[in-house]
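Quick question about two entries, pasted in order.
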Amino acid sequence: MRGRPTIQMVADLAGVSRGTVDRVLNNRPHVNEAVRERVLDAMREIGYVPPARASHTARPPLVLGILLPNWEGQFQAEVEQGIRRACAQLEDSNVQVLRRRCGTDLPQEALELLESMRAEGAAGFAVCTVSDPAVEGWIAARAEEGIPCVTFNSDLPESRRLCFVGQDIYAAGRVAAGLLYKCVSGQGPILATAGNLKFDGHRRRLDGFRDRLAELGFPADQILVRETFNDYETTFRTVQETLGGTPGLRGIYMANLSVSGCCAAVERAGKKGLVHVVCHDINESIRQLIRSGSVDFTIPQDLQQQGYTPLLLLRDHLRRQQLGDGVWFRSRIDILCAENIQDN
């Protein structure tokens, strides 16, 4: 490769236009994720350094840490996409991102991983982990030292975190309750499956669901609550056993992942269309389940943005002393069903 690498060289290597390269460099929307990755790979291969990045190299390096839970599937894939987008943009500001993923739900593991990133020089943290006094205490101690933490997806409201990035989980649970109440004509019993009640987000979603049903006069003893830990086999088995032990089950609230496991159990029992299902999030599997009539409604959230925004907020706070209020990205709560799923 002769001469200094240029945008045109990146475009040629990636097989895209100069305009597409510019959109990737400036983190603009409407770029396919596969195309974005191709452009970034091309930049790395030929050693292209954007002018903006070159002007920032004089800044002292900044290290940020992000701690992820042991969730897989859609959460992992979409949050990782957001992290990659953030890392590509943060390179321009001489920011390095350390990434750690918990293998368990044990608070001690989370603390050890946070400490390992701190030892490597992390000056701020993005955190999604179990709600535990020890973890909240660690974050509060860092706040005393001027080291900010941003929580995402599942909050730690008593931790003195800088802010929370994510959907209003409690409100989303209330919306789900209203939808399922109408589906079952206000009659039970119904099953509510939560992922892991050690996480504040999972508890708050379930709290919102139960509180709204109580306001509607739905009997609390008609709500069966089970934890299924976002696992397909556990979800399938739990729903199957509940259907077998509760022949009159009228509805299921999937407050967690593994919606396909739930619907497979319902179909296996011959209850498809008779047992109504309301869930959260959106992916191709859930789209197909809605189109086929296995799921009545879903309430989506932007998981990719939850991986992206905390790191940018930490950069802005540490470098520019900029931050909004204590909650970020509590966007409106959308509802998807068979009638509008084609547009999303």
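Here is the second entry:
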Amino acid sequence: MTSGTDAHRWIMTGVNQPLVREAFTATPADGEVVVAVAGCGVCHTDLGYLYDGVRTNHKLPLTLGHEISGRVAATGAGAESWLGRAVIIPAVLPCGECDTCRCGRPNICRKQAMPGNDIQGGFASHIVVPARGLCPVDESRLERRLSLADVSVVADAVTTPYQAVLRAGVTPGSVAIVVGIGGVGGYAAQIAKAFGATVVAIDVDPVKLDAIGRVCAELTLNAREYDLKGLKAKISDFCKAGGLPLTEWTIFECSGTGAGQSTAFGLLTYGATLCVVGFTMDRIELRLSNLMAFDARALGNWGCPPELYPAALDLVLDGKIDLASFVEQHPLDSINQVFELAHAHKLTRRAVLVPQH
């Protein structure tokens, strides 16, 4: 076992309160590791905790951040083989031992640990986490445009939609409609494309629509320019012109907004699959009977099992997902300013906070 490490982290003390830096000692217990954080992505969920009053499972004060990559700097007994290795920490760590885990449903493990929610998170110089489920990163495969810090966003922004695409059964010839293509949605679009789908992207930000159109979307639609009927007509006309199916669309709601959820549900067609990936506290009115009438289905998506991480990471390392064009690094010490910019929708790329070791 290696000893404790002097470290610092930024803690949330209350809703709408500035995050505060504090020193601590990172000491691993048996089966745990200390990871020197290379980067931690800023997620919509983090903003929900700080600004919207979404409650964390761990009482405040708490360090947020669940998209984490880094290098193992210290280990507890039984985890020595991880020392010095580059890793991505899964955003949700199931226990691996309960009935739900053994039955193949680790996403609903009641003993799961989510950094920045159940345990201290990654907006820090170091983090202590269980060794189980860590995803190794082969740094020799990182292209010149990517760093270990950049691939932190694989831990949620890539793996969560990866699981959604798998669950939805996207295959070559599918039509994938992504509502909200900032952050998670941008990667959902790219993953669906990698699985052979024709991608339709819907958003309210023309800059983001232009960016995703250059990468993978064959049709981009600004939701400010069409009502729901108009959006559906545009997609139908596009499918007819391209000989694509008018049924069994896969619709990914990634905006995490009430408006986005209403749009996604309204795009249901015969045999469609609605995948809810984004989170919002907003409530919306809908007619559930549409699921019955269209013989459609709706799937929730919480995190991603650690065993799926290597395949999702491979899509990035093989160049099938353009990650570098959609992330930007900021010093960890600028966390309060970066959170404010993200909350005000003034960032065009996903922010990755990088500590100074």
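Reply: The chain is about 25% helix and 25% strand. Residues 173 and 197 are 6 Å apart (CA to CA). Hope that helps.
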